[in-house]
Amino acid sequence: MTQLLETIEINTGTYPTHAIIWLHGLGANANDFVDIVPLLNLPSSTAIKFIFPNAPEIAVTVNAGYVMPAWYDILEMNALGRKVDHAGIVASVAHIAALIKQQSALGIPSSHIFLAGFSQGGAIAYHAALTYPERLAGVIALSTYIPDPAQLEVAFNPLQSQLPVFAAHGLYDNVVAPT
Description:
alpha/beta; six-stranded mixed sheet; 4 helices; 10 strands
């Protein structure tokens, strides 16, 4: 069984009916997007559970092997793309699936759970959502990419073929190209 990640959780109401699992980028942590919740100005009648997990700390090859919070290792990166650690992607997807299952057990069905992510967190949000065995509410992908299209194609769940996706990219992001 996959161990649950350490998380920060914020409820916008007493009995949340929906959840957003929000994944931070490479080198950041669960606190990275916590401050966005009050900025959303959600109506007081809206009860959403925001879950901000911490990625495991691992050595990241392209960052000179420094240990930092990361959803998977990036082995190589150049103008043509990235070479990534496939096992790390699978492990992170399993961590996110465990969080989804936990929320379902607490009464929020998977069809009411969104996955959101920024940069490397968005890459895992894409992969976790598009391979999940049950219908999800949608994906929010911010300044991100698909880390390994071939790996995703093999694991893709056709049930997610109509999954709503909101994708946005910053105009001045010089780390992740908007491709």
